[in-house]
Amino acid sequence: MITLESVSKSYSGKFGSVDALIDVSVQVERSDIFGIVGFSGAGKSTLIRMVNRLEEPDSGTILVDGDDVTAMTKKQLLNSRRNVGMVFQQFNLLETKTVFRNVAMPLMLQGKSRAEIARRVEEVLDIVELSDKRDARVSQLSGGQKQRVGIARALATEPDILLCDEATSALDPKTTEAILQLLKRINQTMGVTILLITHQMQVVQRICNKVAVMEAGRVVEQGSVIDVFGNPQSATTQEFVRTVINDQIPEAVVDLVKHDNRNARIYRLRSVGIASQSVLLAQLHRINGLEIHILAATVEQLEDTVIGLFHVQLIGSDEAIGLGEQHIDAAGITKEQVRI
């Protein structure tokens, strides 16, 4: 659906050239909700603006539904953009105009008839649950309602793709959740492919099925949300995942462990599915001469899958601990020794 292959982009400034994107490759399949996450300055906004060529790449290829966006004429690009809706962080609405007028704007620019415009505006306002605000001025709406108008406007032309540029970062947590669930429903019921950028890993956790993590213009890690959350590889990804899945041992527990002089090792265990953790712990308890303490545990649900993260302390002889390690490896659970 959306393919970026080896895309690079730099800007010239007072102090020389700045690399915004460096050899970025991303593949978004039809009906994905694909999240691009990164800190400020990572290159997220530049990347998403490449999809409809609001930014021109210095090199690389951008395919949208199989068509090379970088090779399109102005007329071809205009037609392509009609298939791509965009939702903005600051809404980008006409504050003094009515909700109806804002949503109708892209249809008016396409030269649709009044009857066609009225029909489609009513449809999308119903989708975003804002039919009762049809004649209200945008300036009278709350932030969440304004974003619903923005989503309705983006859907007005019946696009196959929705680009969301920090669509929830200006909203409070409760409103953010409502907007995320709206986007998820649009994806599931209308089949719209969603590419969103965010600096909040919670957004990715709530609705995305795939994610790419960016740092300093590069994609440092990407894959299914379950794979990336379940076993983050890069330091940046680990930092983001930590905001939703705590992988640290509480300080009070650390202090207690430090004063325990018995022969012991501590492991951080990550698994997809809670059953494997439960079976493993039962097996470890049956090893003669091995004592097991759970120092910390976190369980989170991603889509329909449970991600478990446990810190366990194995106490006993080197032989008993070695047997415990063998059981962990045999269970297919990712382990990492923690030194404190």
Automatic annotation (TrEMBL):
GO molecular function, one term: ATP hydrolysis activity
Domain ABC transporter, residue spans: 2-241
UniProt keyword ATP-binding present: yes
CDD domains hit by this protein: ABC_MetN_methionine_transporter
Keywords annotated in UniProt: Amino-acid transport, ATP-binding, Cell membrane, Membrane, Nucleotide-binding, Translocase, Transport
Family: Belongs to the ABC transporter superfamily.
Protein name stated in the entry: ATP-binding cassette domain-containing protein
GO cellular component: plasma membrane
Subunit-level organization: Homodimer. Forms a membrane-associated complex with FtsX.
Function recorded in the entry: Part of the ABC transporter FtsEX involved in cellular division. Has ATPase activity.
GO biological process: amino acid transport
